[in-house]
């Protein structure tokens, strides 16, 4: 509940947080549809082919057609599968993905709520998504599903550690666990300029958390068929699909918020003049969206450029490379900031 | 402070309702014509052999165990990272010793080969 906040909404007698929540949820759900279309168009551009261009102008209505198709498909639960878990599993990633909208600042004063444990909330909600994938693998009673689910669980918890350490080094700079204050603290200097190694670690970990190439072992078609969603059809499969693209979107948002200045232009504090609240709001949201769109594009770009790792390589990268590096980086940043504030 | 969590409650309810509505829509709109072959778990077109929930590699278990140790470490670090400038030099050194100890622990497990995925490399 932002005090003061954005004046436009108060003219309409809507509390700012309700308006931000509604718009945020709307853009989350639509981001998935748009990303599916974008992914297929970018992929076909990279592979020098046409891509979907039949449904609507330039194929823009393709996601709508996809959703209608998924809704009209039969919903199959395999024999000896746990019926209840099989139905609950696809809901978990969607719910947890949507929950993360609550603490993200989209602009100055444009956030749903500012809790003083925002970072912990984001990490907690993000790791709850593991349950959906694991339960899907376990409840399907299929060997491919179980292996996919186990791989997903091991991979996601492994990359959560370097991710947590990288975020901790961003917390050092802001001196707060509130997402709003972390965003605000980057007005003069984006975190990537203070902490470039942490940013790289966070980006790699974000790719692994979203189960995207080069870390998409979880659903490696050649060895695991469909991975954890082998036995899913209809909208249940659709929800995993939705969650996957929402995770790409959230990954981009978190990269932007923690390391790329959130809604600030580079070094904005030094040169940006005082603007009227409406103009500032529009500018903030445009800057934020532009950065998020860029990172979404990078997610797609990497997927169609880099081949997949082997599983032992994924685990080795996580535990033997990224985790020690992130711990060392954290200590260096902590020591550096301590000396900067107390000695210099 | 607690009223700041009210929007999260609202959001949770909206998200859960949305997920349930999507699932129900698919149940209502889709056909339902099950038969034994269709409901068989997929195993590349063959009849499934045995139960799927079989024993699996111990490495998954080891990873989960290591995860708990290092995740707790990260959780301990967060509160310190927020207030470290006010806590003085003694706390700073104490925290550095804590992190170095866990770092050495990580190097030890890596040297031992616990997290090597090829288990024949285990040098226990």
Describe this structure as you would to a colleague.
The complex is a heterodimer of chains A (344) and B (124). Chain A has helices at residues 7-11, 16-46, 62-71, 83-88, 91-99, 118-139, 143-174, 179-184, 191-194, 196-209, 221-224, 234-259, 268-271, 277-303, 311-342. Chain A has 344 residues and is an all-alpha fold. Chain A has one domain (8-343). The longest helix of chain A has 32 residues, at 143-174. Chain B has helices at 6-29, 36-39, 59-83, 88-112.
Secondary structure elements and pairings:
The complex is a heterodimer of chains A (344) and B (124).
Chain A lengths: L6 H5 L4 H31 L15 H10 L11 H6 L2 H9 L18 H22 L3 H32 L4 H6 L6 H4 L1 H14 L11 H4 L9 H26 L8 H4 L5 H27 L7 H32 L2
Chain B lengths: L5 H24 L6 H4 L19 H25 L4 H25 L12
Q: What is the average per-residue confidence, as pLDDT of chain B, rounded to a whole number?
A: 81
Indicate the radius of gyration of chain A in whole angstroms: 21 Å
Q: Unreliable runs of chain B, pLDDT <50, ≥5 residues?
A: none
Calculate the terminal CA-CA distance of chain A, rounded to whole Å: 38 Å
End-to-end Cα distance of chain B, whole Å, is 50 Å
Q: How big a fraction of the residues of chain A is strand?
A: under 5%
- What structural class do you assign from the helix and strand content of chain A? mainly alpha
Low-confidence stretches of chain A: 1-5
Order of helices and strands of chain B: HHHH
**What is the count of distinct domains of chain B?**
2
Quaternary status: heterodimer
Give the CA-based shape of chain A. globular
Chain pair forming the biggest interface: A-B, 84 and 72 residues
Helix content bin of chain B: 55-70%
Which descriptors would you attach to this protein?
heterodimer, A: 344 residues, mainly alpha, globular, B: mainly alpha, 2 domains, 63% helix, 0% strand
Q: What's the short story on this structure?
A:
Chain A is mainly α and 344 residues long. Chain A has helices at residues 7-11, 16-46, 62-71, 83-88, 91-99, 118-139, 143-174, 179-184, 191-194, 196-209, 221-224, 234-259, 268-271, 277-303, 311-342. In chain A, α2 (16-46) packs parallel to α14, α5 packs antiparallel against α6 (118-139) and α7 (143-174) packs parallel to α15.
